[in-house]
Amino acid sequence: MDMKLELVAVPVTDVDRAKDFYVRAGFVADHDHAVSDTIRFVQLTPPGSACSIAIGSGLSSMQPGSLDNMQMVVADADAARAELMERGIEVSEVDEQPWGRFVFFSDPDGNQWALQQLPDYAAGARDA
After folding, report:
1. C-alpha span between 35 and 31 (Å, rounded)
2. What is the pLDDT of residues 14-71, one digit of tens each?
3. Torsion sign (Cα): 18, 80, 43, 113
4. Do residues 107 and 22 make contact, with C-beta atoms less than 8 angstroms apart?
């Protein structure tokens, strides 16, 4: 049985501020729909990803900023860092580890993201 992760809820305080941040970071705004007076659904997809995030109101009981270490894979940590900086996103230095090269950033609520450049020994996993 195949299972594909399609959507992850990201809890935020201010939907418009978070949407602006993620679009500035390069995410594509796929949907923004007010379902009712209490529910708003905004779907954003990182470039090249098959999985999207959902921000909004009335979507989750998680506390804004409670996501820790959402991780995405990038081909080049230095290039990803440079692009985020050009887009005005505050981002860490590249962190070199035996299991990859990492860049970290947080959204305005403090939800934490890691971008990982896989090590050379994982080239088969990266290309899959």
Report:
1. 12
2. 999 999 999 999 999 999 999 999 999 999 999 999 999 999 999 999 999 999 999 9
3. negative
4. yes
